[in-house]
Amino acid sequence: MSTEAYDPAAEGAQMSFKGRMSYSDYLQLEKVLDAQETLSPAHDELLFIIQHQTSELWMKLAVHEIRSAMASIHDGRLHPALKNLARVSRIFEQLNNAWDVLRTMTPSEYTQFRPYLGMSSGFQSFQYRAIEFLAGNRNLAMLKPHEHRPEVIATLDAILAAPSLYDEAILLLAREGFDVGIDARRGDWRTMRQESPQVRSAWTQVYQDPERHWAVYELAEKLVDFEDYFRRWRFNHVTTVERVIGFKRGTGGTGGVSYLKRMLEVQLFPELWALRTEL
Among 42, 56, 76, 128, which residue has the least CB neighbours within 10 Å? Predict the structure, then answer.
């Protein structure tokens, strides 16, 4: 084992960055690392802030990938859409793993800084709302927490004015010759679509003959993967909140655990789950 100090410059590594773009410059790390401003003297508040900030960064990427998948499905280019959706599933796997870190915080530690949060709450995340709206869960009541920010409302309204990810998948079924009923003629994308027996029948036909409809079959499975990981994220959210605050009300005024458990009942792609009973 050599006792001499290793110098990467000997192998050509650049060691001087005066006048050059460095790693920190490219990632704008000063902005990122200066964004954690604790309001209390509590040790665990930094964990709480970083957990939620990193989750928002992953959600930003999820929105980017879902939008790209939707555009590809709309254009009939399924291979890049499948890649996008696979990445979204991996993003939610990362988001799921993050709960494990937050769960190291005990109720006693959380109560030391909870009063400093005011009425701020995770259900006010506009990026989470964008993901739900993009996927197809278009509960217009959830626009209200964002009404104080016109630019956010404009972004969410633009999402609601166009087909969702699931709408694009159903429209693809129609272009492939499947009877999807009224979903082929929908024009008001803002309203929540109703589960359809025709759409369920169309997806069932795909699953009954996957070799014939392989690309659409793969798309369906990628959508199920996405919702599977999304459900796990919601479940882990519920258990983490119950572990840390029990059944207290949330800081934003929701029922806390009771509100989150209600969200577990929401299905993004209902016909894709229902067909499994029929096969």
Answer: 76
